[in-house]
Amino acid sequence: MSASLSKGRLRGLATGWGYHLSRLTGPLALLGPAGLWLLLFLVLPTLLILDISLVPGLRPEDVDSAYGLGNYSKLFNPFDPAFDPVYLQVIWRSVYYATVSTLACLVLGFPVAYWLAIMAPRRWRNFLVVAFVLPLWTSSLLRSYAWMSILRPTGLLNSFIAWLSSFIPGVELPTQSWLYTSTAVFVGLTYNFLPYMVLILYASLEKLDISLLEAAADLGATPRQVFWKVTVPQTLPGIAAGCLLVFITSMGDFVVPTLLGGASSMTISRLIYNQFLGITRNWGLGSALSMVLIMAVSLAIALLLKYGDRDSVKEA
Amino acid sequence: MPKLSFPNTWQGWLTIALFGFMYGPIVVLGIYSFNDSRRYTSVWQGFSLRWYESLFQDARIFRALQDTLFVAIVAVAISSVSGTLMAIGLCKYYFPGKGVYRGVSYLPLIIPDISIAVATLVFLASMAIPLSIWTIIAAHMVFCLAYIAVIVSSRLGSLDPNLEEAALDLGATPTQALIKVLLPQLMPAIVAGCLLAFVLSVDDLLISSFTAGGGANPLPLEIFSRIRNGVKPDMNALSVLLILASGMIAALAEYLRYKGSTMER
After folding, report:
1. How much is the pLDDT for B14?
2. Under a CB-based contact definition with an 8 Å cutoff, are residues A77 and A83 in contact?
3. DSSP secondary-structure letter at A136?
């Protein structure tokens, strides 16, 4: 009796297991492969970087070295004898480049997004937005290269300036080498990431209730008042989202500062690159710098999730 | 077809100017790729196809192009399946840790390329995996599947869930319902996602630089090493061709997405 009972229980247990297994096969088949890949090639490597950033002075040929915060203290702790202010300067320069280009994108991008979302003929809107954003999908390496040929000392910009000054007798407009300057980096970053800003602001402005603007105007608000008191507050989450996204991408950008900036415009991503593929390699320090970059970006994302318009980002 | 009315507001004019800003440098590049000059100058010397000729005789470029296309096609092919499955799984199931899973799947779109590239290199080195064309593919699959999943997800959100349930009620197995009902509806989004992932893979410089080793030399690496210290005229011709190609592929992808989203309206 007891044997058959236990047999029955066993069978019940087995079918129970089978039931659970069959319930798991669906999710596992769908989510397993990609999840495994993300775990292997994204999560584990990033954890490994965190781990390595805690080993001061690691070079590829080193096998093991003591753990410690040496790499971070070299970057941030002015009382550390190994502290070198150049790293902090590089980090600040990256933040500075990203801030200026984000502001430039906002100032240029807002009127464009406003026109596309509210003033442009309805039938053409989708086409115009896609056309504006299309360059984003072409190689940023090649688009930065295009700027190299414009900003070079013998490039198109200087030829244009020389041509202009030939019309004004007595005045010599200054031609200079624009390439390998901070100006070139600002132009390149703004050029590269303006479409992001326009896309996100467009998604945000498109949802704007135009009758609110009309109501404000009917009640006697000047166009300026309508803009600052109705339009801007309504699209503030979109503005925040666009700014943070442009900030993140320009802060981590490698191609523009490398091609358009000179030796004096070293940024954090270039510095990381050099620690791994350059002449003087230091994997530990490079990893610490990479963690600093990831932390800065994570902070921006946290702000984005808190204050930004997530739907606009998703639509974009 | 309504006429595109004249944008006589300053916002309209600024938009036109910034369209010029976006496309101007590409047009300039295109014009100078036909410039017949021995040295590279901004002075127009007459029309010539010489830079295109020298480009097509460059065997290194062709080998690099082969590497690039191989990486992109294999990475996108595998990612199209795993990325689509992930998007469907994330839409369908609720499980503990789903928020984390979804968050991780967005990371490749947000974390700077340099950080992902460095992390992948360190990971491969620590596992003693030799760098080759296959390590590039493995690394590219991460962002390819993330992009495809995002685009498929946004399409899934706008689908009618009743159709799949109806198929299940009418006796289809879950697999049949997936293949015969869900996948055809998702197809425009999947194709669009694949095209965009393909473009991203072809254009990627950083992740390839860190995972290529000596064995493979994708096109962006070859271009980067040539233009890093100055302008080379035959690179103009190549840039024009590549920008046109990725622009057209991306435009096709956007068209498919747009068509897919207006299909049932």
Report:
1. 87
2. yes
3. G
CA B66 to chain centroid, in Å, comes to 17
Around Cβ B159, how many Cβ atoms within 10 Å?
Answer: 16
> pLDDT class for B8, splitting at 50, 70, 90?
confident
Classify residue A178: in a domain, yes or no: yes
CB contact under 8 A, A38 and B142: yes
* pLDDT of B128 higher than 60: yes
Q: Does B172 touch chain A (CB under 8 A)?
A: no
- Give the domain extent around B192: 51-262
Contact residues, A window 236-255, toward B, CB-based 8 Å cutoff: 248-249, 251-255
Q: Is residue B60 part of a domain?
A: yes
By mean pLDDT, which of B93-102, B191-200, B235-244 is the weakest?
Answer: B93-102
The count of domains in chain B is 1
Rounded Cα–Cα distance for residues B189 and B43 (Å): 46
Mean pLDDT of A202-230: 84
Tell me if B93 and A31 make a contact (CB, 8 A cut-off). Answer: yes
CATH classification of the domain holding B187: 1.10.3720.10
Lowest mean pLDDT among A31-35, A225-229, A305-309, B82-86: A305-309
